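FORM 12-B: Structure-to-Sequence Request
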């Protein structure tokens, strides 16, 4: 739910309460945030503590959710937030508690196995069609750019078939 506090709120110049959350037509997941540790770190015990604090400590995760309207990876915490309007209502959303909508929907998300190509395809299609969407190249050139890029990244792909 980073879209509320990191995308909508700072880019909206209208009054609070103009935006709201509702149930989506379908549950979905578009990745998330990641935290990594460097191989060979001098402080593995500190790295472990930091990662656990940011990913597995319910109190920290609820604090992130409260302060940034961010849906975190604690199911019990998100259920708790969904019932706590006093602490999780959003001024930007006109006092609405978005977690009432997010928490039950998130429990129905089915994470299907992804192919080895999904991430690269998403990145390359966004890159290839970005110029088209900004009127810098035509549609056929964007398609050609994608075909070239996907074949370079994945040499076992020898042909791209576009829907008619």
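FORM 12-B RESPONSE
SEQUENCE OUT:
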């Amino acid at each position: 739910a980073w879209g509320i506090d990191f995308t909508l709120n700072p880019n909206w110049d209208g009054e609070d309460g103009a935006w709201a959350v509702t149930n989506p037509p379908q549950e979905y997941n578009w990745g998330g945030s990641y935290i990594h540790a460097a191989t060979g770190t001098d402080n593995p015990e500190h790295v472990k503590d930091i990662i656990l604090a940011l990913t597995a400590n319910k109190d920290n995760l609820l604090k992130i959710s409260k302060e940034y309207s961010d849906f975190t990876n604690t199911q019990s915490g998100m259920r708790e937030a969904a019932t706590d309007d006093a602490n999780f209502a959003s001024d930007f959303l006109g006092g609405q508690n978005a977690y009432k909508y997010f928490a039950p929907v998130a429990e129905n998300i089915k994470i299907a196995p992804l192919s080895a190509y999904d991430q690269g395809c998403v990145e390359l299609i966004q890159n290839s069609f970005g110029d088209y969407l900004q009127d810098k190249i035509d549609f056929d050139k964007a398609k050609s750019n994608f075909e070239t890029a996907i074949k370079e990244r994945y040499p076992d792909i020898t042909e791209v078939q576009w829907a008619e």
